[in-house]
Amino acid sequence: MRLVQITDAHLYADINARSRAGVPWLHFQRVLAAAVAERPDIIVLTGDVSQDETAASYTLASDALASLPCPWFWLPGNHDQIDLMRAEHPLLEAVDMQQWRLLLLNTQVAGQPHGELGSERLKALSALLKEDDRPVLIAMHHPPVDVGASWMDAIGLQDREAFWQVLSAYPQVKIVLFGHAHQAYAQHIGLADGGRVDVYGCPAMSDQFMPGAETFTIDEASRPGYRVVDLNGEEWQTWVERVDV
Predict the structure, then answer these.
(1) Whole-angstrom distance, CA of residue 31 vs CA of residue 10
(2) How far apart are the first and last CA of the chain?
(3) Structure letter (DSSP) for residue 216
(4) What is the pTM of this model?
(5) Where along the chain do its domains lie?
(6) Which option is the CATH number for 2-242: 3.30.70.100, 1.10.1040.10, 3.90.550.10, 3.60.21.10?
């Protein structure tokens, strides 16, 4: 089973609109074409589909994604309008991936750049994990860890301790994928019971952020990209690919 993560497209209704370091629609098309060439079984877009929060920007994305030769799923980021997303394509909480399960978490706090699950979403996550003991991959927008850039760490998942407390009771959780940080990232989180969860960030489809920066800084030397995750039984391999634009 091959899953490809894409994230942070930041699209505009105007396909010629520019971001700080390029044209988001052009980047989106090229990253998506490269991702398709990986022959994925599933593609997951982990938030910030839109920059201008218009219905037209979501239509652009969903029309392109609808042509994929595999199922695709998305979840909201801090820039997204959930109702507009849902009007184009369902927002699911759980996906059956044969030997694995994919859980898609909504960490959005409306009108805020940071993320939070809150007590109700954490209860729902626990209920999903309690019902099935197959290996689990969690996808979310906001990082549940510090990525080492002060300004980004301040707008990550605010209730990360509560999130990790929930996961500590469910050793079937093996992988967490996040967006938002616009950079590649990897960390192994040890749990109190001796278990481990591997946590991975992904390059954005749009502009890249400078790793380790104290304040907001674009990494103009890095290219857009995506993450590949190969799931084999209860084992996995993952890597990042970059795309020329």
Answers:
(1) 13
(2) 28
(3) -
(4) 0.96
(5) 2-242
(6) 3.60.21.10
Q: Which of 174, 179, 199 is nearest to 188 (CA)?
A: 199
Contact residues for 18 (Cβ-Cβ < 8 A; gap 6+):
none
User: pLDDT tens digits for the chain (245 residues)?
Assistant: 999 999 999 999 999 999 988 999 999 999 999 999 999 999 999 999 999 999 999 999 999 999 999 999 999 999 999 999 999 999 999 999 999 999 999 999 999 999 999 999 999 999 999 999 999 999 999 999 999 999 999 999 999 999 999 999 999 999 999 999 999 999 999 887 778 999 999 999 999 999 999 999 999 889 999 999 999 998 999 999 999 98
Tell me the two tokens of residue 135.
Answer: 């290996």
